[in-house]
């Protein structure tokens, strides 16, 4: 309920208790045991934000918030209003966009996997530093190959491809172990089993659709989570993507009169149960930084101890409904919850927490100066809209007639890594066959060249032998000729000697 520009959430006896819109980007906590009125408190705050023109996103885990589209029952809440001294209270309905990751009870919610990026995915999947490094390499290779990673099967296909070619990339990027590839594939399979095949795809959600207003009221974006909250990994994936997307898209605004948007996450413990440290660190960092973008985050859970201290420290507006304390651990949780408030000397918070009726809460919020107020036992106002679940057929008709119907209903699967992989493999097979054929031809050419070289060498050897033979024959002929000439000369010389002797004798005889 808006009064003097502030959100009236209830009364502490005659004192009115307000949430200050300018302080709601300092985040908040709504805690309490089941059945103590957390959902009503959430509705009262969300309705007031809508009236201020502030859009909200509400994770509807129990499926009991659809009554926002139905006017409340004034007769049913008249007794409570009278007991609180509230007059001129009007019932009304609010503009809502219903969303559902599983595409059953609202507009589909999809996101392109490459928009989430390897760093955020690694934290969500709880990858080791080495595995995160390999995931970065996979995205880098996809970028260099000009391949889009839109959905799960795209990333699975890229993991397989990089694993098969790990030796080719190791020298360029460092070790790409098949063990890391296998670990990533197993985590992707887990995401797929939880519904990641529906969440990752196109058309991707335009975050601007969550910042709309209708009739001056901020849109309540209702995320159906009855099924989603049973899959904590996907629930965390969605939360971090959404906060990260808003942080990247919205400008810095610092302090402002009212928030740009406020998120309510019911069953918040599901985000942190068994969550890897990297994921908790990322949530803490995002919650801390997104405040400067004018975005508020309210976690709803049973006890403050469900939320890590590093995140809890960021939640300045606190509303604590009744807790039960039957066991030592529950008693300790009560004490811790009581100690988290700015103490009121007139109020025993430990005793009050365990004795409050449904619809009553301990409230300590930030005042106009940003200082926490003293805790007050506060009777929470009833909501303006119906506290009942809206009929399913009414919700369906509402969805089919809202302003964004048809924008996300039909999915499409563009050519991306998975679809291109068949062509790439065929091209690689073709290139491999061509390379093998080239090697075969080269080998044949090499063999031919060797044979020609051997033939040339054979011919040269034969020519050498022929030359040697001819030289030998020539030498032998020359030797025979010389011998013959010598013999002839010797004979001539002998004949000359005989003739000379003959002439000499004949001269004597004369």
What does this structure look like?
- There is one protein chain.
- By secondary structure, the chain is of the alpha/beta class.
- It folds into two domains: 308 residues, Rossmann fold (3-Layer(aba) Sandwich), CATH 3.40.50; 84 residues.
- The protein is 50% helix and 13% strand.
- The strands form two sheets. Strands 1, 2, 3, 4, 5, 6, 7, 10, 11, 12, 13, 14 and 15 form a 13-stranded mixed sheet that branches. A two-stranded antiparallel ribbon has the order 8-9.
- A hairpin with a 2-residue loop joins strand 8 and strand 9.
- The longest helix is centred in the last third of the chain and has 93 residues.
- The protein is rod-shaped, with a radius of gyration of 45 Å.
- The model has no long low-confidence stretch (mean pLDDT 89).
Topology overview:
Elements lengths: L1 E2 L2 E7 L2 E5 L8 E4 L6 H14 L4 E5 L13 H11 L11 E5 L6 E2 L4 H13 L3 H16 L7 H13 L1 H8 L4 H22 L13 E2 L2 E2 L1 E5 L7 H18 L11 E5 L3 H4 L4 H14 L4 E7 L7 H4 L4 E5 L6 H12 L9 H5 L6 E5 L11 E5 L11 H9 L16 H93 L1
Parallel strand pairs: 4-12, 4-13, 5-10, 5-11, 6-7, 6-10, 11-12
Antiparallel strand pairs: 1-2, 2-3, 2-15, 8-9, 13-14, 14-15
Helix pairs in contact: 3-4, 3-8, 3-10, 4-5, 4-7, 5-7, 5-15, 8-10
Query: What is the count of β-strands?
Result: 15
Query: Nearest-angstrom radius of gyration?
Result: 45 Å
The number of distinct helices, counting runs of at least 4 residues, comes to: 15
Calculate the terminal CA-CA distance, rounded to whole Å.
181 Å
Any idea how many domains?
2
Residue-averaged pLDDT, rounded?
89
Helix content: 40-55%
- Give the percentage of residues in beta strands: 5-15%
Contiguous uncertain segments of 5+ residues: none
The chain-level structural class is alpha/beta
The backbone outline, from C-alpha atoms, is: rod-shaped
CATH class (first level) name of the largest domain: Alpha Beta
CATH architecture of the largest domain: 3-Layer(aba) Sandwich
Order of helices and strands: EEEEHEHEEHHHHHEEEHEHHEHEHHEEHH
**Largest pleated sheet:** 13 strands, mixed
């Amino acid at each position: 309920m808006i009064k003097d520009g502030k959100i009236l959430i209830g009364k502490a006896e005659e004192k009115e208790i307000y949430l200050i819109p300018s302080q709601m980007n300092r985040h908040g906590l709504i805690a309490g045991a089941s059945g103590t009125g957390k959902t009503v408190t959430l509705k009262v705050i969300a309705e007031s934000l809508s009236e201020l023109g502030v859009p909200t996103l509400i994770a509807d885990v129990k499926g009991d918030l659809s009554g926002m589209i139905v006017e409340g029952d004034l007769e049913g809440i008249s007794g409570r209003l009278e007991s609180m001294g509230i007059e001129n209270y009007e019932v009304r309905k609010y503009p809502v966009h219903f969303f559902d990751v599983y595409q059953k009870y609202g507009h589909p919610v999809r996101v392109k996997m490459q928009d989430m990026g390897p760093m955020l995915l690694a934290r969500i999947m709880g990858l080791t530093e080495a595995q995160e490094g390999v995931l970065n390499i996979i995205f880098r290779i996809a970028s260099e190959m000009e391949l889009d990673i839109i959905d799960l099967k795209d990333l699975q296909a890229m993991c397989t491809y990089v694993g098969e070619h790990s030796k080719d990339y190791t020298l360029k990027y460092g070790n790409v172990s098949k063990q890391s590839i296998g670990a990533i594939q197993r985590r992707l399979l887990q995401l797929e089993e939880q519904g990641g095949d529906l969440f990752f795809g196109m058309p991707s959600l335009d975050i601007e659709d969550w910042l709309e207003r209708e009739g001056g009221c901020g849109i309540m974006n209702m995320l159906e989570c009855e099924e989603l909250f049973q899959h904590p990994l996907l629930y965390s994936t969605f939360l971090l993507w959404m906060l990260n997307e808003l942080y990247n898209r919205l400008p810095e605004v610092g302090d402002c009169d009212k928030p740009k948007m406020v998120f309510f996450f019911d069953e918040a413990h599901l985000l942190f149960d068994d969550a890897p440290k990297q994921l908790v660190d990322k949530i803490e960092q995002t919650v801390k930084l997104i405040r400067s973008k004018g975005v508020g985050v309210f976690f709803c859970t049973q006890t403050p101890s469900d939320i890590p201290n590093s995140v809890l420290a960021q939640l300045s507006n606190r509303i604590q409904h009744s807790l039960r304390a039957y066991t030592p651990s529950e008693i300790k949780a009560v004490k811790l919850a009581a100690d988290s408030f700015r103490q009121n000397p007139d109020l025993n918070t430990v005793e009050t927490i365990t004795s409050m009726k449904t619809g009553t809460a301990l409230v300590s919020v930030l005042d106009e100066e940003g200082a926490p107020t003293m805790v007050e036992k506060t009777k929470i106002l009833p909501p303006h809209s119906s506290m009942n679940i809206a009929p399913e057929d009414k919700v369906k008709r509402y969805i089919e007639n809202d302003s964004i119907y048809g924008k996300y209903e039909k999915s499409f699967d563009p050519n991306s890594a998975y679809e291109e992989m068949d062509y790439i493999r065929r091209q690689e097979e073709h290139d491999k066959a061509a390379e093998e054929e080239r090697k075969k031809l080269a080998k044949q050419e090499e063999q031919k060249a060797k044979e020609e070289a051997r033939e040339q060498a054979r011919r040269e050897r034969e020519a050498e032998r022929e030359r040697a033979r001819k030289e030998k024959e020539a030498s032998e002929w020359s030797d025979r000729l010389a011998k013959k000439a010598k013999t002839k000369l010797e004979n001539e010389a002998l004949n000359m000697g005989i003739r000379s002797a003959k002439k000499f004798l004949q001269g004597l005889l004369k």
